[in-house]
Write a structure and sequence with these properties.
Blueprint lengths: L13 H21 L10 H12 L2 H13 L2 H4 L5 H11 L3 H31 L5
């Protein structure tokens, strides 16, 4: 019998969801400060969502974040009219799920390539006998 995989959000507790949101909040603040953005509401939150998914989160964090948004009420997790609300409401209500899925898939492939490449290099280094 084939075991059915649960969506990642189903396995997240409320505390785990809060930890994920805290990490994303820190990354978001870093991005805004790095780009000298103080009045964030003047910028399209959706653009920042895509940027965060492409540049700041690995594929597993992206999947966890999607799970959080799909399985928890935003009002239970973030304060209304906060920077988090601006970001997460754009992700929950405005983001193109096909575009997000494409970003995650590309990231996962790139991460696999890096992992495989580093594994091959470390295997070659370990198996290469030193000659005197």
């Amino acid at each position: 019998m084939k075991e059915e995989k649960k969506p990642i959000g189903d396995s997240l507790s409320f505390e785990e969801a809060k930890k994920i949101l805290s990490k994303v909040h820190g990354d978001l603040i870093f991005l805004l400060e790095k780009n000298n953005i103080s009045d964030y509401e003047m910028y399209p939150a959706l653009d920042v969502v895509y940027l965060m998914f492409r540049e700041y989160l690995d594929s597993q964090d992206c999947l966890k974040l999607i799970g959080v948004v799909q399985h928890f009420e935003l009002s239970d997790l973030v304060e209304y009219r906060s920077i988090d609300w601006w970001f997460f409401s754009a992700l929950a209500f405005d983001a193109d799920i096909k575009k997000i899925t494409g970003i995650i898939e590309r990231k996962a492939i790139e991460e696999q390539k890096v992992h495989i490449s580093s594994s091959i290099v470390s295997d070659v280094v370990e198996s290469d006998p030193k000659r005197i």
